[in-house]
Amino acid sequence: MKKTLILACVILMSIFTVQPILGQNYLKTDFRMDGNIPAGSLYREMYGTLNPKFNLGFGLNMYKRVEIRLEASYFNDKGGTTITDEEIIFKYTSYSAGLRIRFWQIKTQNFYFGTGFKYCLYSEEVPERFNDYSDDATALYVELGDYWYLNNTFYLNFNGRYSFLKIAPFDEDINLGGVQIGVGVGVNY
Hints:
Elements: H1 2-22, E1 27-38, H2 41-47, E2 51-62, E3 66-80, E4 87-106, E5 109-125, E6 133-149, E7 154-164, E8 166-167, E9 174-175, E10 178-188
Antiparallel strand pairs: 1-2, 1-10, 2-3, 3-4, 4-5, 5-6, 6-7, 7-10, 8-9
């Protein structure tokens, strides 16, 4: 938690330092909520689908159509073991860096394609007779989305993303990547 807070402060200080150099409306911040549909059948069997994930993102517009992105996301999920249905809790945090390229504009809408990498921390709390598990992994993602500008300052962000992430807790291969569909609100400044 302490590292996350320090990282967030460094990012915010960097953004506010760079803004006067770049000018108005080159920076953006958004909050997005995703429905997460993991590709792995074992994960879906234990936890279900459309698990909500919360994202906080920062963007820096470069040139006319390119945006550099930094994001942090979190979700917490409760499920049951496959045989005895005992409660297990899965926690997931990721930090992403990527690029978005706006490729088509219609009035107040800007459609984009993006890609990037993310560093993921995850843990699983299991029944007492087992050992809890935590680890980290890296992943690649691709995305399509739409910034729908309400005015010069505020926008809605509709986003679809696919991530490629495989983990192996307890010697079980689990495909945690998959489809994420989300909607968010953001501010240009």
